[in-house]
Amino acid sequence: MTSHNDVNTPSRRDLLSGAAAATGALVVGFWMPPRAAAQESNQGFNPEGATWAVDAAVKEVNAWVVVSPDDTVTIRIAQTELGQGVWTSNAMMVAEELQCDWSKVRPQYASANRDAQEMAPEWTLNVPGKGATDPFGGGEPDFGTRARLGTEGIPDTLYRRMRTNAAASVRDGRYYLQLAGAEARERLLLAAARSWGVPVAEVSSANSVITHRPTGRTTTYGQVAALAAQIPHPAPDRIRIKPPSEWTLMGTERRNLDVPHKVTGKAVYGIDVRLPGMKWAAVKTCPVYGGKLKSYDFERVRNRGGVISAVEIPITDPALIRGRMFSEGIAIIADHWYQAKSALDDMPIAWDVPPENAARNTANIRATLIAALDKPGKVRANVGDVDRALAGGARIIEATYSTPYLPRARMEPGNATVLVTDDRVDIWIGDQSPQETRYSASQITGIPEKNVYLHMCHLGGGFGRNGNGPQAEQAIYLANKNRGTPIHLLWTREEDFIGTTYRAMSVARLRAALDADGWPIAIEVRTAMDENAPGAIASFDKASRYYVPNYRFTTHTATFHIPVGTRRGVGQPAHDFYRESFIDELAHAAGKDPYLYRRELIARTDLPYKDDMLKALDTAAQMSGWGRPLPRGTVRTIGLEERGAESGGHATLSAQVNTISISKQGEVRVLRVDIAHEEGFSLVNPLTVRKQIEGMVTWFYNDAMYQECNVADGRIVENNFDRFPLSRLKENPPEINITFFKTEHWLRGMGHDRSTTLQSGIADAVFQITGKRYRDLPLRNHDLTWS
Amino acid sequence: MAIELTVNGVRHSVDVAPETPLLWVIRDHLGLTGTKFSCGIAQCGACTLHLEGQPVRSCSVPVSTAAGKAVTTIEGLSRDGTHPVQLAWIELDVPQCGYCQSGMIMRAVALLNEHRNPTDAEIDAGMTNACRCSTYHRVRQAVRLAASKMPAGGRTL
C-alpha cells in the first residue's frame, strides 16, 4: 500500500538518470521522453520551478509523504495551484498531523497516472463520525458519487479527489489529508521506538524531532524514514485526527509555498514547458460556435521561416472528450510560436457557419430569455400562496435584472504540451481535472489510459475551471497527428476567448407584495438562462433567505449556442446581485434602513444559521461605522452572502459593507469595504482566505462596472483586454478590512463566491446618490452622473 | 537576420525576423520564460521587462528596436531573488496565481527607480499592469514596503 511497483515504469530510469539532484533525496527534474531525450536541450529551460510528480529517491512513508535523510519532507498535492493557495493549505493539513518542521516542507503534485491505478488506502475510506458533532472533530466530507471522472464527489482512487473545483479542496481534503499526515507520523514514531527497542507509547515528536521521553534521547524523521517505510501501521483504522482545538499549524497564517518561485520567474506554468525537439502550434477555431472549416490556403504561408505544416482540427465526438471542442479549427505548426501565429494570421481561412447560430446577438438572446420568464418554469420552492398574496398586498414592487455572458479570462492563455508515441502519451499542462484529460487523451489517441502521463504545472488562474479543455484535447489531437514530436499548443488571447465556456447570460424578474409597514408578504423569483448553465438554483433555492410567508422560485430556460460553464462562484454572483439588489429596493420602498431591514427579515426566519448571518451583518455594519454621517456623494451599502444557509451542514456566510463615492461626473470610487466572514470551527490558512477575499472584491468590482461579452453575428465581440477591460490598482479600494468570527460548523468552501454583493452595493450606491436605479450589469453602460 | 541583444548582462545574437516581438525572442529563442505572454496587444503588462532601464510591454516591441540595447528580465533582477521588491513581495505574500507577477515586479522596480518614496498618486499612476487575481491590495503595500527596503541613493538596477 505504501510502495508502488510498475507505475511510471517507462519513465523511472530516464527520470532518475536525467534529473538534477536538489535538496536531499528529493529529485527535482523533468522527465525526458525516450525519443526526445536523444536530443540535447539547448533552449535553457530551467526546471527549478517545476512542480510535477517525480519518483522519490527514497521510499515514501505513504503516498502523500516522503521524508529524505536531510529531513526534507515532500508532500504530494492532488489539487492544482491556480492562485487559491491549495499548494500550501493542503500541505498544512498533512503537516499538522505529521508534526514536521514546516520550513522543510516541499510540495509536489501527486501523480495522476498512479492515482488512477492504485486504490486509496483503506484507512482513508471511512468517516468515523457525523459532521460537526463528531467528538474527534473529524467532520464529514461530501463523498458524493465517488466517480473518478466527472466533477462530483470523492473517488476511492489513491489520492481521492484529484480535480480542483467547487472551492472544495480544503473542505473535502481535510479529513483524509489529516489522516495521511497522522498515519505517516505514527509509523515514524513506531520506527524510532523499534530502533531504540522501547515502547512506542514512550516516544513523541515535534518539528521532525522524535524524543524518547524517559531518557531524552532524540532522532529525526529523516533518520528513521527508511525504516518507517517498511513498517505498516498495526491498526490504521484507529488513527485519530486532531480537532481544531489541538491544531498548531492549521489555523495560523502561512505564506504560500509557491510564492518564492513566483517572484523570480522560476515557477513553471504550462506555457513555460520546453522539450527537446518541441514544435509550436497556433490555432484558430471558428469564432461562431458550431462552425466548420470551409477552406484555407496554406500555400500562401507554407514557405515562411519556421512554418512546418497545417493541421485541420475536427469537432471530436463530444461524448469522448467532455464536450469541450466547440468548433472546427485549423492549426499551423512551426519551429517557434510567433512564426506559427503570424502565418495563421495571414492565412486565408473561410468558415462554414450554421446560420441559426450566426443569427444570434445579445439583443435577441436577451429577448428570448425575457420571454422565457413568462413560460412555465421549474418550481424550486413554493411556500404559501404567492399569487393570492401578490393580489392582496398593499404595494407591489417588480424589478427585472440581467447579467451578461462572462468569461474567466485568466491571465495565462490556454496551452498544453503533448508528446504521443506509439504506446504512450505525455502531457505537460496546468489542469483542473487531470483524470478527465487522461481519459480524453486515451480516447483521441487509442492508447490505453494507463499509458497516459500528466506532468502537472501551476495554472495562471482558473476562476471556475478555465484550466480544463479544450486546449488539452486540441494539443492531444495535433500531437497524435505528429507522433514522436512534442507539440506545444498555445492560444492567443483572442483564441482563449473562443476556447472558454462562459457564465451564462441571465435575467431575473422579482416581484414582492409589501404590507402596510413595508415588510414583504410575498416574493416571487423567476430566473432564466441557458438550460445547460450550472448554478441555476443558487441563492434562491428551497427557502427565501429573507423572511416572507409566501415564496415561490421558478427557473426558466432557453437554449443558445454559446457554450456555458462554471465561472467563479457559478450561479451565485448573478443571483446575489438580483437578490440583494431587490432587498435594497424593498428597503427603500419601505423607507427603512437597508441594514436593519435585512436584519429584521433574517431574524424572522427559522434558517439553521440565522444567528451567524445576523452576526455577519452586525459585525460588518459595526466595522464600517454604519449610520455615521458621510459627505454628500458618499454612501454605505450592505449585502449578505451565504452558501448553504438554507440547508445546514457545510455553509459559508459573510456580510460586506461598502463605502462608495460617486462624483457628479459619474466616477465611482469604492473607498473601503468592511467584511465580516465566518471561520467556522477554524480556517486552515487565514492568510490565504484574506488574499482570496481581497481578490474577489476587485473581481466583483470588475463584474459590476466593466465586464461583459456581447454576441454579434453569433460570435463573442469582446475578445481581448482592450474591449474587455480589467480594472487596475488605482481603482482598488484603498481600505479592505476583514474580520473573521467563529461559528459552529464547517465551511462550505471559499475562494469563489465572496464579495459578490459589491455588485448590488455599487448599484445601490448609484441609486442612493444619483436617484437612478440600474438593473443591468455592467454599470459602465449607464449614465452615472448627477447634479 | 542576426540581431544583437544584451540580456541580463549577457550578449546574444539571434537569427529571427526583425518584426518578431522582443517577448518571443526572450521566451523562445533565449529560453527566459519568466516574462509572460497574456494579451499580445500591450494592454495587460504581463510581459513587462526593462529596455535600457525603462519598462516596456515586450509583446509589442519588435526585437529590431532592442538591437544593441540592454534588456533586463525578471531573471536578471537579482542573482538570488533578494531584490528589495522581491523581498517585499515574499514578505507580504503578494502573488496568487503569480502569472502576472514578473511583469508587476518589473513595473514596481521601474516605479521605485523613478520615485524613491512614491506617493499613493505615484503608485496609482505607475502600477498600471493588470492582475486577474486582483492582488492590487498587497501590491500597493508591497511597493511601500520595498521603498523602505531600497538602499539609499536610488537605482537598484
Question: Would you write up a description of this structure?
Answer:
The complex is a heterodimer of chains A (787) and B (157). The model of chain A is unreliable at 1-46 and 129-138 (pLDDT under 50). Chain A is α+β, with helices and mostly antiparallel strands and 787 residues long. Chain A has a 7-stranded mixed β-sheet. In chain A, strands 14-22-21-20-15 form a 5-stranded mixed β-sheet, with helices on both faces. A 4-stranded mixed β-sheet of chain A has the order 23-24-25-28. Chain A has 3 domains: 59-262, Aldehyde oxidase/xanthine dehydrogenase, molybdopterin binding domain (Aldehyde Oxidoreductase, domain 4, 2-Layer Sandwich); 270-285 and 292-352 and 412-499, Aldehyde oxidase/xanthine dehydrogenase, molybdopterin binding domain (Aldehyde Oxidoreductase, domain 4, 2-Layer Sandwich); 362-406 and 503-781, 2-Layer Sandwich (Aldehyde Oxidoreductase, domain 4), CATH 3.30.365. In chain A, helix 5 (169-196) crosses helix 6, helix 15 (572-590) runs parallel beside helix 19 (758-770) and helix 16 packs antiparallel against helix 17 (610-624). A 5-stranded mixed β-sheet of chain B has the order 2-1-5-3-4, with helices on both faces. In chain B, strand 3 (48-51) and strand 4 form a beta hairpin. In chain B, helix 2 packs across helix 5 (136-149). The longest helix of chain B is centred in the C-terminal third of the chain and has 14 residues, at 101-114. Chains A and B meet through helix 7, helix 8 and helix 18 of A and helix 1, helix 2, helix 3, helix 4 and helix 5 of B.
Features:
heterodimer; A: 787 residues; Aldehyde Oxidoreductase, domain 4; five-stranded mixed beta sheet; disordered N terminus; B: 157 residues; alpha+beta; Ubiquitin-like (UB roll); 2 domains
